[in-house]
Amino acid sequence: MVSSDQRRRQLAREKFERQQRRREEMRKKARRRNAVVAAALAVVLAAGGAVYASVQLTGRDTDSVDTAAGSSVAPSPDAPSPSPSTSPEPSMAVDTKAAYTMTLKTNVGDLVISMDAAKTPRTVNSFKHLADKKYFDGTKCHRLTTQGIFVLQCGDPQGDGTGGPGYNIPDENLTALGKAGPDGKATFKAGTVAMANTGSPNSGGSQFFLVYQDTQLPPTYTPFGTLDAAGLKAVQEVAKAGVEGGTGDGAPKKPVTIEKATVGKE
């Protein structure tokens, strides 16, 4: 006769196996989508058309980009919608009226980011939680864009745009960028640090992007921090080196590794 403890363990194991199968299916979809969008982007560049993109990311196993030449192309490089959260958002443990600093020690220098917990409490709380657990330590900034949008994207422990913490956090502080223009976009000024997402509301995870040159994007990405002058210069130097393969979107030719991330109260 199966005991209640044995039954619970069996159910837990079956649940874990289902989650693993779901993650693998998401990764397969991501790889297929990568191939489609890479081909579309190559056609656009060859035609000399303008390229517009938006940086998107979910909290788990998705990190996508919309690229268009006058019209929308399927999201890339990964899944088109957020995958389900598998763990709860961390409990609030920061002072919601305080300012915090996130310091990313990298191989290209320290990137110091000022964060305002009063405006983005749940975002700051998540970064504090993840940094304390050394989640970002030893991770690469996997993506650089140099055409249409100008950002360096980081925060994926997988290093390929598919990783996330297993939970999503809500959008915050979206009004800080002002109203969108006739094209539906607002200016993310150089030095802005914002959450990536899938394009769906409240789908942030751990991935974020550093804006190194004024960039037009829809005001749907939580702006939660500002990069200091030295950090901005370091990212601009990475951008000058370009993207691997000579494209406008991909792994930076000059690799950037976050050696250690810390978040502390100012």
TrEMBL record:
Top EC category: isomerase
EC number(s) given by UniProt: 5.2.1.8
KW Isomerase (keyword) present: yes
Compositionally biased residues, Basic and acidic residues: 1-27
InterPro entries in UniProt: Cyclophilin-like_dom_sf, Cyclophilin-type_PPIase_dom, Cyclophilin_A-like
All copies of domain PPIase cyclophilin-type, residue ranges: 106-263
UniProt cross-references to PANTHER family, sorted A to Z: PEPTIDYL-PROLYL CIS-TRANS ISOMERASE B-RELATED, PEPTIDYL-PROLYL CIS-TRANS ISOMERASE-RELATED
Official protein name in the record: Peptidylprolyl isomerase
